[in-house]
Design goal:
CATH architecture of the largest domain: Beta Barrel
Number of domains: 2
CATH class of the largest domain: Mainly Beta
CATH topology of the largest domain: Thrombin, subunit H
Radius of gyration: 22 Å
Structural class: mainly beta
Strand content: over 45%
Order of helices and strands: EEEEEHEEHEEEEEEEEEEEEEHEEEH
Largest sheet: 6 strands, antiparallel, barrel
Number of helices: 4
Helix content: under 10%
């Protein structure tokens, strides 16, 4: 019998489908508090990402300095004439005349140098003809809080090429769940909501293969997060804690059906057993990355991926691979 090919879809936060993480407490001790509450994430890449090449309208017609110099979509501009840049505003501040600019670019991990001559636009500003994405923004779930530190997602934030994004800090926000799109065969579902950008919760400092980490800076306490201890996951029944509506996380029945600690963030294969969650969402959705896995009253891991050909199945990371970074 032909082996069925299993296709995976990373629950990546490159999608901009905001949701909620509720109001956290900034805890003074080193106790571990269970998460399950989603949050809005906004991270700065270690450079300015080119997401489009455009023409510059000059008095002599249209021209494209970026295209003429060989800059392409996906390039990460690291510096201009030696000055680091991270945003469209940084580029504007370094391109003040029509003299040659030396750009240092990261193209799929390779550093290249390009000479570019800015064009004088009809609006009186010199331009390179690049469209820049300043930040990567989306949603995911907090796995746990320890002291003033948080761990989340269970996998990294990635760039357009699927590689781990090198970040230069970021911000964690509150958000609110407003609904979801059910998962279907070969089409992952996703959570929907709104990031509350006026309600900052903390700072993002690390983006690793095992998750996204940072500091909780706001002392707010609407949700009473329970204390919990770490444990070692094993085959058998467990629960995931996640939020599919509103602000409060809820536990749903799953089973751990396979264990492999040699993998980096795919240590468990999990199967959703909860009839309520299956009837609502069809299983695991994008945005549930980081939802904690609890077994025998202990935190043993977090959801990281969904099988795109069967949303009842997914991968989870063992908690020891996350806790080592806090």
């Amino acid at each position: 019998m032909k082996k069925r090919k299993i296709i995976l879809l990373l629950l990546c936060i490159l999608f901009i489908f905001p949701l909620f993480c509720g109001n956290y407490r900034a805890f003074a001790d080193d106790s571990v508090y269970l998460g399950g509450v989603p949050a809005g994430f906004s991270v700065n890449e270690d450079g300015a990402r080119v997401v489009g090449i455009s023409d510059v309208l000059t008095e002599n017609g249209f021209t494209s300095p970026a295209k003429d110099s060989g800059i392409i979509i996906g390039d990460l501009i690291l510096s201009i004439d030696g000055t680091p840049v991270f945003s469209a505003k940084d580029i504007e501040n370094t391109v003040l005349n029509g003299e040659k600019k030396i750009l240092s670019l990261n193209r799929e991990g390779v550093i290249i140098i390009k000479d570019v001559f800015p064009a004088l636009s009809v609006d009186g500003k010199y331009r390179l003809g690049v469209n820049i994405r300043d930040k990567i923004t989306g949603i995911g779930t907090i796995t746990f809080i320890k002291g003033n530190k948080f761990a989340s997602l269970g996998h990294p934030i990635t760039d357009e090429s699927g590689k781990i994004a090198k970040i230069n800090g970021g911000t964690l926000y509150e958000a609110t769940v407003t609904g979801f799109i059910r998962g279907e065969r070969y089409k992952a579902g996703e959570l929907k909501g709104n990031i509350l950008r006026n309600n900052k919760l903390g700072n993002i400092t690390l983006n690793l293969n095992s998750g996204v980490y940072g500091e909780i800076t706001e002392n707010v306490s609407e949700i009473n997060l329970p204390k919990i201890t770490f444990g070692e996951g094993k085959m058998g029944k467990a629960k995931i804690y996640t939020t599919v509506n509103g602000k409060i996380p809820k536990g749903y029945d799953i089973s751990i059906i396979k264990k492999d600690l040699d993998q980096e963030n795919k240590n468990f294969v999990i199967r959703v057993e909860d009839n309520e969650l299956l009837s609502l969402t069809g299983g695991i959705l994008q945005g549930m990355s980081g939802s904690p896995i609890v077994q025998d009253g202990k935190l043993v891991g977090a959801v990281t991926h969904v099988f795109i050909n069967d949303s009842k199945l997914g991968y989870g990371i063992a908690i020891e691979n996350m806790s080592n970074n806090i």
